[in-house]
């Protein structure tokens, strides 16, 4: 709960569009009743983060702490459609990433592979991916939850061999994903620039017969 209170303003300042809280196999059940997940507590903290960063977008918050991760994943897209989603999310490919220790690829690698796949489909109006990150509790994801994520289309990612606190993992993963998305957008803009050919003097003059 204390980590979550510190996280609310940081998450909103990083520009995330949606924050979902779920239960977990390795999470203390007492956390479900924490005041940290009540709107009266997180609302002012989110506004604090927004005011500090200048981010104009208010993230949507869904608290399902008493529900399992499986339930939240099953209903995630339904909630997205029910609430309409944002216009800037329409048509964007979605990259689903779950953080887990082990010999998994990096967040950057997963996002770049997804972008490359989208471009290979000859999508001339390619939009950078929208990233969904799943971060486990302090004790991490259970083996069953990791398998569940893969079954739901998530790619498991690693940020190295170190075991990180939840708040550190959240901030680091968002920063890494944001940086990778920026690289994808930058490279896509450069690819879409028209070729500039060098013209020799007289090239544009009509030929004489």
State the total count of DSSP E strands: 5
Give the biggest sheet.
3 strands, parallel
* Order of strands, widest sheet: 4-3-5
The coarse overall form would be globular
Radius of gyration from the alpha-carbon trace, in angstroms? 21 Å
Order of helices and strands: HEHEHEHEHEH
Distance between the amino and carboxyl termini:
84 Å
**Portion in strands:** 5-15%
Q: How many DSSP helices? A: 6
Backbone structural class: alpha/beta
Range of helix content:
40-55%
pLDDT averaged residue by residue: 81
Runs in which pLDDT lies below 50 for 5 or more consecutive residues are 81-88, 192-209
Describe this structure in words.
The chain is an alpha/beta fold and 209 residues long. The chain is 43% helix and 11% strand. The protein is built from 6 helices and 5 strands. It has helices at residues 2-13, 39-53, 69-82, 107-120, 143-151, 166-191, and strands at 18-22, 60-64, 94-99, 130-134, 155-157. The strands form 2 sheets. The chain has a 3-stranded parallel beta sheet with strand order 4-3-5, sandwiched between helices. Helix 4 (107-120) links the parallel strand 3 (94-99) and strand 4 (130-134). Helix 1 packs parallel to helix 2 (39-53), helix 1 packs parallel to helix 6 and helix 4 runs parallel beside helix 6 (166-191). The chain is globular and about 45 Å long. The N and C termini lie far apart (84 Å). Residues 81-88 and 192-209 have low confidence and may be disordered.
